[in-house]
Specification:
Elements: E1 29-31, E2 52-54, H1 68-73, H2 84-87, H3 102-118, H4 128-136, H5 146-151, H6 154-163, H7 174-185
Length: about 240
C-alpha cells in the first residue's frame, strides 16, 4: 500500500499513494490459494503457506485527500483496531496531532497480529479517554497475554509491540518492518543470526507433503478457499 512492491519504484506506483487502509483487522484478511511454486527469480517464497489477501477497501485514503482526511476519517473503522491517531480529535484537549499516514497501516498490522497471537479479538480496544491517558503514559500500549509470550519468540513479540506504539515516531516504517521480517526469516550464515521460519521461506510445498498448515478454529469460515481443516480433525502443525 505504500509503494506497490517490496522494491521502491520511480516514478511512484500510484499517483495518489501511499494508501492508508483505516480498517485493518483479522476479519478483513482473507485466505486464498497456495502461491506459485517459485518467485520471479526461480526460488520458492513461502510456497508451503497459502496467500493472504487484504480486503474491504471501503474507506481508504491517499495523499490526494490529506490533510482533510485527518478530520473526515477519524473514528472510522472497528473498535479494537483503531490506531490512537484515528481516535484523536482536534477538540480533544491534550492530544497530539499525528496525521493519518503509513504509520497508521503499521499500527493496524501490529494490532491484527497481536489479536491473533492473543486469541483475543478485542486486544487493542481504545477510546478517547484511554487515548488521552496513553498520551501522558506512553508505555500504556496494547499488551500480549502471558500465553502468547510463552508461545512466540521474543523477536516476533518485540516486532509486533513496536508496531502498536502510541506515538507514530516510535513505530517502524513499512520498509524497516519488511527488513526486520527478512532478517528473521531468511537466514544467511555470517550475516543474519537465525531463521525463525525454519527454512520455510525457500521451501516448496512439495517438501512438506500432506501437511495442513491451518487449523479450523470452530464455526463456518466461508472465506477460506479449501483451507479450513474440518472440525474434529487435528492439525498436523
Amino acid at each position: 500500500m505504500e509503494r506497490g512492491d517490496e522494491v521502491p519504484q520511480s516514478p511512484p506506483w500510484f499517483i495518489g499513494g501511499p494508501v492508508v487502509h483505516l480498517d485493518l483487522k483479522p476479519g478483513n484478511v482473507f485466505i486464498a490459494d497456495y502461491p506459485a511454486q517459485t518467485t520471479a527469480n526461480g526460488q520458492p517464497d513461502f510456497a508451503i503457506y497459502p496467500r493472504f489477501k487484504l480486503a474491504d477497501f471501503g474507506f481508504p485514503v491517499d495523499n490526494r485527500r490529506f490533510p482533510r482526511a485527518d478530520d473526515e476519517y477519524r473514528g472510522r473503522g472497528m473498535t479494537g483496531y483503531l490506531s490512537p491517531e484515528q481516535l484523536q480529535a482536534h477538540q480533544h484537549a491534550g492530544q497530539s496531532q499525528d496525521h493519518l499516514n503509513t504509520k497508521t497501516n503499521v499500527y493496524g498490522i501490529g494490532i491484527t497480529l497481536m489479536a491473533m497471537m492473543n486469541l483475543n479479538y478485542h486486544t487493542g480496544a481504545l477510546n478517547f479517554a484511554e487515548a488521552e491517558w496513553n498520551e501522558k503514559h506512553l508505555n500504556l500500549v496494547p499488551q500480549f497475554k502471558l500465553r502468547a509470550l510463552m508461545t512466540y519468540s521474543k523477536t516476533l513479540t518485540d516486532m509486533v509491540r513496536s508496531c502498536v506504539q502510541f506515538r507514530q515516531a516510535n513505530r517502524p516504517t513499512s520498509g524497516t518492518l519488511l527488513t526486520s521480517l527478512r532478517n528473521a526469516t531468511d537466514h544467511q550464515p555470517g550475516v543474519l543470526p537465525e531463521d525463525f521460519a525454519l527454512g520455510a521461506r525457500r521451501a516448496a510445498s512439495a517438501n512438506f507433503p500432506g501437511i495442513q498448515l491451518l487449523k479450523h478454529l470452530g464455526g463456518a469460515d466461508d472465506y477460506a478457499v479449501g483451507m479450513s481443516i474440518p472440525p474434529g480433525i487435528p492439525a498436523s502443525i
